[in-house]
């Protein structure tokens, strides 16, 4: 099942932003700015990659496992919402 | 839905092992052994907590979302198995 | 070199708090409360263990590598303060 | 203090490799390959970013805090080597 074009656009925008952040790290390494400043740039890449991991996992759950808003079984819908909360908390 | 008693026993054993590791950290802090050795003990707690997170999340998926081995919809069973792989890779 | 008793008391208090959190996880597993609630308890253990890792690493730097406030070499003092910032950002 | 050109080349090569991995993620998102496969690509970015964090932190310690191989104070050299071990274990 393919994602909606809205979701695809959002994920692609996240991917482009991460590429921009990685290019900033490369320029910083090239320019030999202070290590501590490069490390802060790298930490921001790490945060963005974790955010993309959480978002992709959530999309995978909604599209390939259970879509909680369309699920007729109330227990399963609830369990899926709880799982999405866990993914947001633990992967970010 | 409650877990099987086998799963419960396994999770409880993990919990007890983590408590034992934390008690070792406390004794190490009390005895003022070298920082680096305490840090290695703390790193092992961290690994064990991540392992428990992954195992609990997998149990949650199997019991409250989709049990892939009993799921008649093949796509959903496959998507769930992929999700469990992601959880094992990303949470551990 | 041993830590001051103030630092030791603070680290021991952190260790005890983590043990209390792990015992709460064990009780939750025993009582079979919902997976999602247990996972939130486990996530709080993880946060606390990461906090202890960062604090122990900072203490190790201050006591066994360079104490930035007592360091006569200004560049080294600055580099050490930057390192402590990195540890606080990346290990927590 | 600037790094040696050998270290700089090694860090730049890591940066370029991460950019290549991020571009692969972008292509995968564009091509709508399966979520699970994209997630494995993202997990490899995460590993590479953690590796860069650990290596940059180690370089920072060696160049701006204490160079353990040139340090006359044996305790300080030992404490620094232990710190580098912690960084390699906990940041990767």
Question: What does this protein structure show overall?
Answer:
The structure is a homotetramer of 92-residue chains. Chain A is mostly helical and 92 residues long. Chain A is 83% helix and 0% strand. In chain A, helix 1 packs antiparallel against helix 2. The longest helix of chain A is centred in the middle third of the chain and has 31 residues, at 35-65. Chain A is elongated, with a radius of gyration of 17 Å. In chain A, 35% of the residues are buried. The model of chain A has no long low-confidence stretch (mean pLDDT 92). Chains in contact: A-B, A-C, A-D, B-C, B-D, C-D. At the A-D interface, helix 1 and helix 2 of A face helix 1 and helix 2 of D.
The greatest inter-chain interface is formed by: A-D, 34 and 34 residues
What spatial form of chain A do the alpha-carbon principal axes imply?
Answer: elongated
CATH architecture of chain A: Up-down Bundle
Which class of secondary structure composition applies to the elements of chain A? mainly alpha
* Main beta-sheet strand count, sense and barrel state of chain A: none
Approximate helicity band of chain A: over 70%
Could you say how many structural domains of chain A there are in total?
A: 1
CATH class of chain A: Mainly Alpha
What would the keywords be for this entry?
homotetramer, mainly alpha, 83% helix, DNA binding (chains A, B, C, D)
Task: Furnish the topology, listing elements before pairings.
The structure is a homotetramer of 92-residue chains.
Chain A: H1 5-31, H2 35-65, H3 74-91
Helix pairs in contact in A: 1-2, 2-3
